[in-house]
Task: structure prediction
Amino acid sequence: MEKLRLSPGMVVAGILMLLGFFSGIYSLIQGHASYGTSNDMPWGLLVAGYTFLVSGIGGCFIGSLGSVFGIKSYAPMARRAFFLAIVTVAVGMGVIFVELGQPFRMFLGYVASPNLTSPIWWMGVNYTLFLVLSVWAFFALGGRNRTVARVACSFAFLAALVADGSVGSVFGMVNARPFWYGLYLPADFMLCAWIIGFAMIALTVSLEKRLSAEKEQLLGSVRRVLVVLLGINLLFIAWKSITGLSAGGEDDKYLAAVALLKGPLSVRFWLLEIMAGLALPLILLRSSVANTMKKRIAVASPLIIFGLLMNKMNIVAAGQIVPVEAVKSDTYVRMGGYSLGEMGIVVGAVAFVVLFYRIADALYLNVPAAEHAQTEGTPVKIGDVGNTTAV
Amino acid sequence: MEELLKRRVDRRSFVKVAGTGMTLAVLEGLLSRVKANEIVPRPDAAKRYAMVIDLQRCIGCEACTVACKVENNTSTDPSAQPGRKIFWNEVLVKEEDKYPQTKKDIVPRPCFHCENPSCVKACPVQATYQDRERGLVLQRYEKCIGCKYCAIACPYGARSINWSDPSWPKEREGAFNPEVPMRYSGIIEKCTFCVHRIDAAEAKAASENRPVRDGEIIPACNLTCVAKARFFGDLNDPKSEVAGLVKSSRAHRLKEQTGTKPKVFYLK
Result:
């Protein structure tokens, strides 16, 4: 078991986590008056932060590659990937909890008066189911029964697919918001989850001091997959923009696309989402020069994750920036900006994931093979779950 | 398959099939026309309360907004940020062009009490529900979790969020309407078509063993309208004033493409 050393990074993450925690408590006491939202733009940074964090469900997709799909090179990372998925989704649910106006009513309301036509109801149920199944899969991966692990991972994978689709449907089923309405967002959320899943794995592997040959090979494979997925994401964004612009005239979809491309959201769209979150990582990942690959991935993967946070913020804002009013307005909804409390909660949530992962990695996830037969570094036969040998 | 292809189609069977197809097509067309005409009484709903607002008569005085606030105890917090004020009935004004060619569009906007309400489908805990007996879209405040999805789903921006506990000027204290429940921070609210007035009128009619008369229910906004631009009644009663008005060529509804079938009609 590796000794856990307190690093400056962990101290900073701890402070940010505490900041987020107190921001959350303050918001619960103060109510959602403390957020930068309004009747015209009811969803703000916390909803964007929630959709970003629950996209960490992609960790489950990556964790399932080995045991469910037989891609053995990913098997050594399965437990870490599942762990990250569980933590990010749980923290994401915590973020949406403080976003609610009356959060404590939710538990009874979900059970006592469920509305089966509501995408939000299904989202809550699906994510809860996912958490249960993925915790089972996580422990099953650490156990000795490979059949159980395979079954648990398969169920968790299916639950993740359904849950991720349902968060996309929360936006995609809103007929009143043409920029969101339709098939695009559920598909986009699915793509983002896969990207975040691969980026999280790339980051955790690239930050390791010394890499085994298998992990270097894995990193190379993740790099190639990320390049493809980022390319697809770029195409998605391009087509979303083109179809929005082609709507033309006074159409809400057109106005939202214009807000994103050259309106109030354009700076963070072009600079933070496209340049920092997509273009720069693509440039960094494009080269396959072996001796700098680890460093380039260590820089590119957090940029990708940051870019996807910006993507969620832009999607959430663009869908609401065109007023839904009886009389067609010729102005965009005035954005009040994000409050310190909201920013504190989202930053604190991310810091919590980082800190919790770091501690768990040192104390539990990175344990030697003897303690966990199917964890990292365990030589088992090809075809077995948890095989570290790259195929 | 080959047999089918080889089978000869005689003139009689061709005429039969073609005739049936054409009859079905015509019937479908007729039926869809009836569907599009929303004013036919619906057998599944005892009442379909609706509002008609004559935009030619409306002078944009906003008396309806004030009456609504007083009647329904909505917060009048002067310190509320723009975009956080609570209006169950707001008069929206849009000015176009410059003097002397200025054109003003004035549209009073209550809740539209849609027949296919997107807010009801959106609410995860049934805090927003449809009173099918009367065609009203109402809110159970004690169930609302404040997720704001109904506000996101409403295509008309008719919902207000209580960002904090409501507050009023000092003069208002002690002068609240006891028939309307007070709201509080963290929940959503909206126009109810003055459901307490509907309840009272229906109870009175029931006690006198008679149906509710047309014009007997008068929401606060209608009562105060100086231009008599607003009308309220039951669309299922073919003799009601609103049932007559919605047949007018001037009658239209907003954002029909969303499929919500709003029950607030405007007369152009």
User: Anything to note?
Assistant: Chain A has a mean pLDDT of 88. The interface with chain B takes residues 31-33, 38-43, 99-103, 105-106, 109-110, 112-115, 117-121, 124, 170, 174-177, 320, 323-330, 333-334, 336 of chain A (CB under 8 Å). The radius of gyration of chain A is 21 Å. Residues 274 and 307 of chain A are 7 Å apart (CA to CA).
